[in-house]
Amino acid sequence: MKGLSTVFVIFFFLGMSSVCTAQEESSPFLIQDGPFNREMVISYARNLARKPYQPIEQTIPDAIKNMDYDTYRNIAFSPKQAIWAKTDLPYQMQFFLLGHIFKNPIEVGIVEKNRVHTVHYHPEMFVNRNNPDQSLPKEEVGFSGFRLHNPMNRPDYFDEVVVFQGASYFRSLGKKQNYGLSARGLAVRTGDPKGEEFPVFRSFWIEKPTTKSNSIVVHALLDSPSVAGAYRFTIRPGDNTIMDVEATLFPRTDMDKVGLSPLTSMYMFSMNGRVADDFRPEVHDSDGLLMETGKGERLWRPLANPQTLQICVFADSAPVGFGLMQRERNFSSYEDLEAAYENRPGLWVAPVGNWGDGNVILVEIPSQSEIHDNIVAFWKPRELFKAGSEYSFSYRLSWGNESITDIARVVATRMGRADVKHPTPDRLFVVDYTDPDFDETILPDAQVLASAGKISNVVVQKNPHVHGYRVSFHLQPDGVALSELRLELKFEDNRKAETWLYRWTSKS
Fold it and tell me: Which of 87, 173, 330, 469 shows its CA 20 to 30 Å from the CA of 433?
């Protein structure tokens, strides 16, 4: 398995075995003040995987355990208590309280000059914005997550740029954007009828940043019944916030349903499928899955909110990248003053090295509410991850706007009835492309294929409003329940264009 092959590494870190054993016997937590290097996290993960899974259990006082959403949301970390708040460093760090649905405690250590010291909870860190006199637990209850702040948008204000909270979820954004989709450390059995397993980041080591660099490094220890793992995130905020991720996994069991670099988003409806009676034209954090295959083909698959669970598989070898994107950037397409969906980031995954054979998996879950994330995308290696083995892989995450703009690409997909008079009318599809090399004297050909049903009335027109072209066609279902559609633009000068993919169902 290229780039994900089993690796056998021996670390000669003096005293590591005895240090790990002593910590594990004395406490379920691993972070203790003392020396630190990256290999320690890998060693912790390796040692955890050799033993049966033991979740960290901590008694949470009822005062915070049973909080409702509104109460929990109103408890905020005091900015004056932020780590590095009284320095000239380019980052500050704040924490989230345990409570509500966030009941898995994490431990956090700050690394400076190759030594770590533990960050401990105390009630003065938090305040209830609606009830400042509310008392919080005085005993050590830990944290549920943390967030990093950086003056990304202007030099006199520290914006929130990264959040790690809940299982192995984390999220980020680019300049002048709002939070939207999330990423995870690992997906296990996503979409499986037996239920999904959610690995958790249980421990974090954050390296103290320097005044000379805009980057910050976060180490994380992942754990679950099936696998333990060590992660290293190098984070650089900017127009697009970049995260370089290095991971080493140690399966406890044979794993044939593992997802690397899983992305999670929300899609309710747009002009290619409305499922709600809503004043807004569109509601989504992402509107499409973008892929660049190992052979160099770029694919765009508009997202859907299906009536039944859909799992789509896109086979590939050595993928260049994939991601969930938000292409529609006009306020008029959403008309939502609060959510500002036009400012949600896209997220692109670029493997480092050859990830070998496998599939990009897209999971679309029926949803009736925009508060639920119902879209998941990840890379599923073809190779079985075997218990007792070790797997290393790396990738880069880019949070923000798309960087792939050098070819003709899809900017809108619309669908509706082709003939309102017919009892079972054809479906009309309208697909708009923008082209950086748009020339009004050139008109490409369009090739449309369907796995079932019939395609007719294929028309290509110039569309100066998007600096490109409009392709329209009819799909005659002929009684089928599902048809996979594929549209390609063909230019005489052989310039490239994205391939448009779509899954139509009779319940669309």
Answer: 173
| Cα–Cα distance, 351 to 354 (Å, whole number) | 7
The continuous run of DSSP H or E covering 70 comes out as helix 69-73
pLDDT truncated to tens, each residue of the chain (508 aa)?
A: 434 333 322 222 223 332 333 333 334 578 889 999 999 999 999 999 999 999 887 778 887 888 888 888 889 999 999 999 999 999 999 999 998 889 889 999 999 999 999 999 999 999 988 887 778 888 888 899 999 999 999 999 999 999 999 999 999 999 999 999 999 999 999 989 889 999 999 999 999 999 989 999 999 999 999 999 999 999 999 999 999 999 999 999 999 999 999 999 999 999 887 767 899 999 999 999 999 999 999 999 999 999 999 999 999 999 999 999 999 999 999 999 999 999 999 999 999 999 999 999 999 999 999 999 999 999 999 999 999 999 999 999 999 999 877 899 999 999 998 876 665 678 999 999 999 999 988 999 999 999 999 999 999 999 999 999 999 999 999 889 999 999 999 999 999 999 999 999 987 6
d(CA 167, CA 164): 9
Cβ-in-10-Å burial (0-12, 13-18, 19+) of 291 comes to buried
Is residue 124 exposed (0-12), middle (13-18) or buried (19+ Cβ within 10 Å)?
exposed
By CB atoms closer than 10 A (0-12, 13-18, 19+), residue 57 is exposed
How far apart CA 431 and CA 438 sit, in angstroms, is 16
Rounded Cα gap, residues 352 and 412, in angstroms: 31
Greatest CA separation found in the chain?
80
DSSP string, 452-503: SSEEEEEEEEEEGGGTEEEEEEEEE-TT-SEEEEEEEEE-TT---BPEEEEE
In the chain the domains, ranked by start, together with CATH numbers, are: 62-400 (2.70.98.10), 409-505 (2.60.40.10)
In total, the chain counts a number of residues equal to 508
List, in sequence order, every beta strand (DSSP E) within 293-384.
298-302, 310-317, 321-325, 346-352, 357-364, 375-381
Closest among 214, 107, 85 to 164, alpha carbons compared: 107
Q: Distance between CA atoms of 194 and 201, rounded to whole angstroms?
A: 23
* Among 354, 407, 376, 400, CA closest to 180: 400
User: Crossing angle of helices 38-49/16-26, nearest 10°?
Assistant: 60
Backbone dihedral angles phi then psi of residue 109, each to the nearest 5 degrees: -130, 145
Half-sphere exposure for 401 (CA within 13 Å, toward CB): 10
Cα(94)–Cα(268) distance, rounded to whole angstroms? Answer: 32
Q: What letter would DSSP give residue 43?
A: H
